[in-house]
Amino acid sequence: KQEVTQIPAALSVPEGENLVLNCSFTDSAIYNLQWFRQDPGKGLTSLLLIQSSQREQTSGRLNASLDKSSGRSTLYIAASQPGDSATYLCAVGVKAAGNKLTFGGGTRVLVKP
Amino acid sequence: GAGVSQSPSNKVTEKGKDVELRCDPISGHTALYWYRQSLGQGLEFLIYFQGNSAPDKSGLPSDRFSAERTGGSVSTLTIQRTQQEDSAVYLCASSLVPSQGWTEAFFGQGTRLTVV
């Protein structure tokens, strides 16, 4: 059974610092990995999708890497801003299961002005 | 529509009553998923639709839960005889499935269900 872990569970940084969020998964036979952002009381906003054949994806200040063999992904957010404060979730999909997603518990990020 | 739409956004119901939650996916997305987010359990998968068929219902917690999808579009999640442990946020997601496989999942804003 796939298990996804995100460490740390919470993170507080001053504005301008780079953020590093970690995600690990137990079964390397994934189809893709997706990073989401969730604001309090809201749904999930997709940030980046990495296919299993890819090593990284970039969008603006966000960069996500994937090391499938070691079961790890890292989300980097450069030059953090207070508006980056949210919970970040990673999720892995399995092709045989219609790409249903297994989620980590999330990392709650606070960027202090 | 432009995004995944869920209704109602909030629902308070009495224990024992039935509730229906609606999801309107992004137009053209053939894959549709229901997830549940609760404080103690995180985000958990409930059911997956491809078109109108549900090849994976493994996450439905009991036979009080059912879902259907019609016209390859709108889906309804029904919870019968609601219990307090059903209180959670129910999230719907949809995904495009081109020939090369599934693309990213887009989520709705969720329905917050409170059973009193």
Describe this structure in words.
The complex is a heterodimer of chains A (113) and B (116). Chain A is mostly beta strands. Chain A has no helices and eleven strands. Chain A is globular and about 45 Å long. In chain B, the strands form two sheets. In chain B, strands 2, 4, 5, 6, 9, 10 and 11 form a seven-stranded mixed sheet that branches. In chain B, a hairpin with a 2-residue loop joins strand 5 and strand 6. Chain B is globular and about 45 Å long. Chain B starts with a strand and ends with a strand. The chains are: A mainly beta (113), B mainly beta (116). Chains A and B meet through strand 4, strand 5, strand 9 and strand 10 of A and strand 4, strand 5, strand 9 and strand 10 of B.
- Strand residue content of chain A: over 45%
Describe the sheet with the most strands of chain B: 7 strands, mixed
Average of the residue pLDDT scores of chain A: 95
Largest interface: A-B, 25 and 28 residues
Q: What's the gyration radius of chain A in Å?
A: 13 Å
Count of individual helical segments of chain B: 0
- The outline of chain B comes out as globular
Oligomer type: heterodimer
Helix content of chain A: under 10%
Number of strands of chain B: 11
Number of helices of chain A: 0
- Main sheet attributes: strand count, strand direction, barrel closure of chain A: 6 strands, mixed
Order of helices and strands of chain A: EEEEEEEEEEE
Instruction: Please indicate the percent range of residues of chain B in DSSP E strands (runs of 2 or more).
Output: over 45%
By helix and strand content of chain A, what is the structural category? mainly beta
Unreliable residue stretches of chain B: none
Q: For the record, give the distance between the C-alpha atoms at the N and C termini of chain B, rounded to a whole number.
A: 33 Å
The class by helix and strand makeup of chain B works out as mainly beta
The low-confidence parts of chain A are none
Tell me, briefly, the overall form of chain A: globular
Span of the ends, CA to CA of chain A: 41 Å
